[in-house]
Design goal:
Number of strands: 12
Radius of gyration: 20 Å
Order of helices and strands: EEEHHEEEHEHEEEHHHHEHEH
Distance between the termini: 13 Å
Shape: elongated
Strand content: 15-25%
């Protein structure tokens, strides 16, 4: 039985890496810059060199490592092929084959949001469950779906893109995906600001949100303080996200929704606004799904990547 696995989370600015033991404990964490010049051709060689350096410094032989798991920002199929990662400069690359050839170790790659979801199922907010939907409320809305303990990837690795569920027919502003009315236009951090801006423009009702810097944090702080306008914004947010998650539940029937990302720092108050809409729209067989906060934070990616290897 091999002793270790390495988890790799490739981001647009840094690559996070972690060395894990078989029980899922992180023994060492480190980062390297993501060198994106020349169409990102240095990224995988840099990762390989960093892993080899760490093995040398810790006196670990390759025969002790079960493999390397990788989360990457783009659609990744079950063979480890990524179909474009625009913010890395990549076109179509088989990460598993290329990185594996540099390291002479087994490599398993998946989409970064799916990998983070796997991490939360394995060692985070979804621990103890085999069917979870992880929702990341950040600049956009990311998603990862785990069904019976396995990542739902879909045909080209685009499964779990819940932020691009169409939720609003009347939207005139474009989403980053170039469609209109996507869930992430209302439930992300920028989406909360969009809802706040629109509500504040409706009338001049007094609110602590007027005159200051408008942010998702400011909105949720105002909600906690009982600001009536902020509460109305939160209700609108909850209506959109609850409705979207009800649609997801009807397809994958999760035990728990694990909510992470910057917006989740508001805490469980989010659930006070999500759950009523969820219960309003959800199919009765899915009504008992739990809601939990993600617990691994920025480490979810390296945990999930290592978990891909250690749970094979």
């Amino acid at each position: 039985m091999k002793k270790y696995a390495v988890g790799v989370d490739i981001g647009g600015t840094t690559v996070k890496l972690g060395l894990f033991d078989r029980e899922g404990r992180v023994l060492e964490k480190w980062e390297i810059p993501t060198v994106k010049r020349e169409q990102g051709c240095h990224i995988l060689p840099d990762i390989a060199a960093s892993i080899r350096d760490k093995m040398t410094s810790m006196n670990i032989d390759s025969s002790d490592i079960q493999g390397v798991g990788v989360g990457a920002p783009g659609p990744v199929d079950d063979e480890g092929t990524i179909y474009k990662a625009v913010n890395l400069g990549w076109d179509v690359i088989n990460i598993s084959q290329v990185l594996g050839s540099y390291l002479d170790l087994p490599v398993k790659a998946a989409n970064d949001a799916n990998v983070a979801a796997f991490g939360e199922m394995w060692q985070g907010g979804g621990k103890g469950h085999d069917n979870i939907v992880a929702v990341t409320l950040g600049t956009g809305v990311g998603g990862g779906i785990i069904v019976n303990g396995s990542i739902l990837t879909g045909a080209t690795g685009a499964g779990g893109e819940i932020g691009h569920i169409h939720i609003e027919d009347e939207e005139t502003e474009s989403c980053g995906c170039e469609n209109h009315g996507c869930l992430e236009q209302y439930a992300s951090a920028t989406g909360v600001v969009r809802l706040a801006r629109r509500r504040l423009a409706q009338d001049q009702e007094p609110s602590v949100l007027r005159g200051g810097e408008l942010s998702a944090k400011a909105v949720w702080d105002a909600v906690k303080a009982g600001d009536r306008v902020a509460v109305q914004i939160a209700e609108r947010f909850g209506e959109y996200l609850g409705k979207g998650l009800a649609a997801v539940a009807a397809v994958v029937n999760p035990e728990v929704f694990v909510i992470g990302g910057g917006v989740s720092k508001a805490g469980t108050v989010l659930f006070d606004y999500i759950r009523p809409a969820y219960e309003k729209y959800v199919f009765h067989g899915c009504r008992n799904a739990e809601f939990a906060l993600a617990t691994l934070g920025n480490d979810a990616g390296i945990f999930g990547a290592a978990g891909l290897i250690l749970n094979e």
